[in-house]
Task: structure prediction
Amino acid sequence: VKGDRKYHRGFTLIEVVVVMMLLGIISISVIPNWDNAQANLNHQAALLSRNLSHTQVLAMNRGSALTVNFSSKVYSVSDAGGIITDPATGNLFSVTLEEGVAFSSWSDFTIDMLGRPNSGVVLSVSPFTQTLLGGARSKLVTISPISGLVTVTEG
Result:
């Protein structure tokens, strides 16, 4: 008897299968557009920015200048005795860029005991910029003179 049964509302098996097929088709079209180098580039630019800010704090806490050294795939922080140990991690303060990301050009610079970028002993009047390349895109990580503000922008 129809009046005695409770009817449950829900999705039929066919509806669930159709939705799963549509999700599969959409994901197949999206996955080839995923650019792993671009994801790595964004991550590495943000990491470099945080590490530069961290280096400024370290220089101020230590009361001495620290040098940020760059090569095409590695950057490190050193003092007169060589690469320093990062107190936050207990490891040497050296970072290797992830696969597909590299610096297009680089120049070492010093962060003085007040957290300001300079080239050796002369306080900088122009920003220091490092360009990271990943895939077909680039990111600029810039340290402003005087204030030492670190920013990341599209290249």
Summary: The longest helix spans residues 36-62. The first strand starts at residue 66 and ends at 70. The mean pLDDT is 86. Residues 92 and 122 are 27 Å apart (CA to CA).
